[in-house]
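Chains adopt folds. We examine one example:
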Amino acid sequence: MKRNRSFPALIFVVVLGIGAALAYAMHRASADFAAIGILAVSFVLACAISSAIQVADQWSKAVVLRLGKFRSLEGPGVFLIFPLIETIPYWLDTRVLTSSFKAEKTLTKDTVPVDVDAVLFWKIVDPKKAALDVADYQSAINWASQTALRDVIGKTVLAEMLEGRDKISGVLQKIIDERTEPWGINVISVEVKDVLIPPALENAMSMQAQAERERQARVILGDSERQVAEKFVEAARTYANDPVAFHLRGMNMLYEGLKQNSTIVIVPSSAIETMQLGGLAGMTALTMGLGQERASKEKESEVNANGNHNGAKQLTSV
């Protein structure tokens, strides 16, 4: 991770500047050899002091080793080390970190090859263990996550994987946390981003879903037809007990059919006799009357339209 070197660099410049000023003063006093010595000593002293002063950011921890042995964890803030005796091999970030991992062409429990992408959110809770108990904790976390993901995929069928991502994420978090706990790392959460299946299987699943939707539509339509038939049976019983209501209903249906710009209406003679419309002659007269009424209305509308058009022309000519 990036180290904060601004403050040690400032100390180096200040010490070297003081030494350069002393050397210049000795040079003005005709002591060239002493001036060169002071400048060299100030340079070495500036390097030593700037190397001894270290600054750790608020989210950083420095692992300090003294002659190869663990001495302490330092930071955040300013701390001192002994140059050439103490070293800092690791600067650890204690914030929440993310790692992406994936499993390619992994077979599920029902032998379907899938590609799964996931994201791991984790945090270092014990920097000493993370620095001393594992060589490269980031690579170890990535490998542990990939192997756990492959194990979970191999024990899960495709349908459960596509529908229950939250459940798979919880299982992965538990497995990875158990593996990384000895390294001082805590797994906060695991999020499965995407599950990719072969295109041929995707097309087959799409056709299956479409067929299922069509089946449900047909079932709904059949149920609707059954309900309509039940309502017709109830209406027939009502009309059977009340002939006057049946007669009025027939007259209403006939009237509605004739007024929808229909010139020919075919009505069985038995229906005419049942509805007591006065025979075929009465039916013809009713149809002609409605036709004449419609024709007169159309003629009146044309006359009104022509009158409005002529009036507009006269206004234009004026």
In short: Confidence is low (pLDDT under 50) at residues 308-318. The CA atoms of residues 151 and 195 lie 15 Å apart. The chain has three domains: 6-92, 97-197, 258-306. DSSP finds ten helices and eight strands in the chain.
